[in-house]
């Protein structure tokens, strides 16, 4: 059962001694097992309180808090050009686990659809993602979070496609396209990096024309850097996406990955397969129908593109 905003405010006052709660506003993210609220104190300072509902969510929150503690020195040293949540205190929950409280990071969620090319926000986003991928992988290992090499990550993607295929709901031509890309060994020669793992526009905060913060670090792993680029390539205007990628590549110190963009686009497509699997596993027919519709649209789009390339050839 979800906790009330007042219960979350009470947890915040326990976690941060001296915090005098003046107002509270629920800020839950749909589909998660964590209650979230923004607490405003008597000095108008804003705090985020997060309380897990399940043991698994509690363990994920603890791992994320450990990682965030390790990231802070990189922010302070300027190696990460954006803020990350900094846990200020914890409150033990009666059923076990702890709620975590941190100051709210200033900024508004990024609007990818209106992103413009040039040296401003698009370049800032590219530099931010590159800096994230330059972090030492030991940070993830020390926090007990997942670490994959290139072959293991490719196998993970193959397992997702195999499971999606067994539903019988993926268009055959799209399925063959995915399988061909997964069988192309050259495509999967990459150096694993620290990746956020679940970036969306809601997670990237913007202030005064630059990326000011990145939120929700609970899916961090060592894996394919293409995963953190797919949402940009899929949703941003093409010229803006190219500007992001240019800034990204300039900021990376060791980038010899000719297939990075190909894997990023594939990752965006496979996100639809995972959405389908989520609907199937949860028995939610609305999600299944939504996923199937998007997969059919994707299949039509990719076949049209391939036909156009064939006719030119």
Number of domains: 2
Spans of at least 5 consecutive residues whose pLDDT stays below 50 are 308-313
If helices are DSSP runs of H or I spanning 4 or more residues, what is the number of helices?
10
**CATH topology of the largest domain, anyone?**
Aminoglycoside 3'-phosphotransferase, Chain: A, domain 2
**Proportion of residues in extended strands:** 15-25%
Overall 3D form = globular
End-to-end C-alpha gap: 59 Å
Overall mean confidence score, pLDDT: 91
Looking at CATH, the homologous superfamily of the largest domain is Aminoglycoside phosphotransferase (APH), C-terminal lobe
Secondary-structure topology with pairs:
Elements: H1 5-15, E1 21-26, E2 34-41, E3 46-52, H2 55-76, E4 89-92, E5 98-103, E6 108-109, H3 121-133, H4 138-142, H5 150-166, H6 172-183, E7 193-195, E8 204-207, E9 210-214, E10 221-223, H7 230-235, H8 238-251, H9 260-282, H10 285-312
Antiparallel strand pairs: 1-2, 2-3, 3-5, 4-5, 6-8, 7-10, 8-9
Helix pairs in contact: 3-8, 5-6, 5-9, 9-10
Describe this entry's structure for a reader.
By secondary structure, the protein is α+β, with helices and mostly antiparallel strands. The chain contains ten helices and ten strands. The strands form three sheets. Strands 1-2-3-5-4 form a five-stranded antiparallel beta sheet. Strands 6-8-9 form a three-stranded antiparallel beta sheet, with helices on one face. A two-stranded antiparallel ribbon has the order 7-10. α3 packs across α8 and α5 packs antiparallel against α6. The longest helix has 28 residues. The chain is globular. The chain starts with a helix and ends with a helix. 34% of the residues are buried. The C terminus is likely disordered.
